[in-house]
Structures are given as structure tokens and as C-alpha cells.
Design a protein that fits this description.
The protein is of the alpha/beta class and about 250 residues long. It has 7 helices and 10 strands. About 35% of the residues lie in helices and about 25% in strands. Helix 2 packs parallel to helix 4.
Length: about 250
């Protein structure tokens, strides 16, 4: 898999989202603006109902904003495209396909020559640490392994931008910590730009270069916190605790 490729640059410009119901109108997002620079790891946190997932869906092209525009590589986002890899909390794996088959799915849909599939899949399986499980079906995999397959599938077309919506929310704490470490290793090795939505403040401080703190009614960016800590980061570090409390207070 190619690395060192120029990463995507994301620009969210005045994005708003309104839902018009029969009895009332809900302003889910209002005037949300931020940028993500090439190779940066940015996390979005906020209270329940602040519009994190709505914002994620708009950035990924799965939903249209009511106002404003999202740009990736200076091109307006209208729908998901090959410059972005998307990972959700739910794995969305095909139960009738093996690990190899699930990872290869993105290649089949992207026009990558079939002659290149085997090598690319092998590289990706190695990258996410699933050697020996290529012929396994999802039903025989743990939650953490399923999410590794989903990550490998998202990386299959070598996207510049990796979009992740609470991808580790469905696994236990130990697996979550392990997946965080593995994601950071993959991020360093592939130089992707990552936009990562989470409800877990500790996870955000562990992973991010910057944390965007959202507030609700309507959903908007309350604060941007730059995490100036070397990696790997420890929860017992007093500076880690200071960032954690600052972000938590912003959410409250």
C-alpha cells in the first residue's frame, strides 16, 4: 500500500443542519466551521445530542447540510468518494465474506485492477494484525477483530482522509486501549488525515493533535483544544489530567 501520499485537507465552512418536522423545527447544527490540516489527527467530542454524528455524516457526504459547505482537497463534498475511508461503530461486515473478502470489497468497487487485489489485501491484513485469519468469517471474530477488518476495508483504496465515528464504542476497555494504540501506529505509518468522533474524553486526549469540543442547542463548536503532549500518553500524567478536565468542563 502506498504511503507518504499527500493527505486530504478538510474545510468545514459555516455548516448548518435543520430538520423541519410537522410540529417543530430542530436546528441540529449551526454555523460549524473548522479545518483539518494534512496528516493531522483531530477528535470531535461533545454531549449527547450535540450533533456529532450529524456533522460526521455531512463531512463524509452521507447527508447534505442545510447551509454551508464541506470541502475535501478544496472540492465540495456531495457524496462519499475514494479520497475518504469511513469507519462506523457498527462493523457493517458482510457475514458471507471472509476477512480477505471483506477487505477486498472496497478494491472491487474502486476500479483497482484485480491483479493488484491479492497483494493489497495481504498488506492490509498485516497492517491491522490479522495474519492467519484471512479465511475466517465475521461470526468467528471478536469485536476488536471485526473493527480491524472494518479499518482495513476503509484503508483498501488508500484514502487520504480517514473518517471514524465512535469506532471503538462497542468493545471492552482493554480492547479499546489496544485498538487505540494500533490506530496511532497505523496513522504514523500511513500519514493519513484522521477525523475521529468520540463521546470518550480520555480517548480524545489519548489520540488527538486537536480536540473540537461541541455544545448543543444548536450544535456548534464551543472550543478547540490543542493537545501538546508527546505520544504515547499516560492517563496518570498530570498534564493529561489537565487536558481531560478542561475538555470535560467544556462539555458540561
Amino acid at each position: 500500500m502506498a504511503v507518504g501520499k499527500t493527505a486530504s485537507r478538510v474545510r468545514v465552512d459555516g455548516v448548518g443542519k435543520r430538520y423541519d418536522g410537522e410540529r417543530k423545527t430542530v436546528q441540529a447544527l449551526e454555523d460549524v466551521s473548522f479545518e483539518v490540516t494534512p496528516g493531522e489527527f483531530v477528535c470531535i467530542v461533545g454531549p449527547s445530542g450535540c450533533g456529532k454524528t450529524t456533522l460526521f455524516r455531512i463531512v463524509s457526504g452521507l447527508e447534505a447540510p442545510t447551509s454551508g459547505t464541506v470541502y475535501v482537497d478544496d472540492e465540495p463534498v456531495r457524496e462519499p468518494n475514494s479520497s475518504m475511508g469511513i469507519v462506523f461503530q457498527e462493523y457493517h461486515l458482510f457475514p458471507w465474506r471472509t476477512v480477505r473478502g471483506n477487505v477486498a470489497f472496497g478494491l472491487e468497487k474502486s476500479g483497482v485492477p484485480e491483479s493488484e487485489h491479492a497483494d493489497r489485501v495481504r498488506q492490509l491484513v498485516e497492517l491491522v494484525g490479522l495474519e492467519g485469519f484471512e479465511k475466517s468469517y465475521p461470526k468467528s471474530l471478536s469485536g476488536g477483530m471485526k473493527q480491524r477488518v472494518a479499518l482495513a476495508r476503509a484503508l483498501a483504496v488508500d484514502p487520504d482522509l480517514l473518517l471514524m465515528d465512535e469506532p471503538f464504542g462497542a468493545v471492552d476497555a482493554r480492547t479499546r486501549a489496544m485498538l487505540q494504540d494500533e490506530l496511532l501506529d497505523i496513522w504514523r505509518r500511513t500519514e493519513k488525515t484522521v477525523l475521529f468522533v468520540t463521546h470518550d474524553v480520555e480517548e480524545a486526549v489519548t489520540l488527538a493533535d486537536r480536540v473540537l469540543v461541541m455544545e448543543r442547542d444548536p450544535g456548534s463548536i464551543r472550543e478547540t483544544v490543542e493537545i501538546d503532549l508527546p505520544r504515547p500518553r499516560s492517563r496518570t500524567d498530570p498534564d493529561f489530567e489537565e487536558y481531560y478536565e478542561r475538555i470535560l468542563e467544556g462539555i458540561r
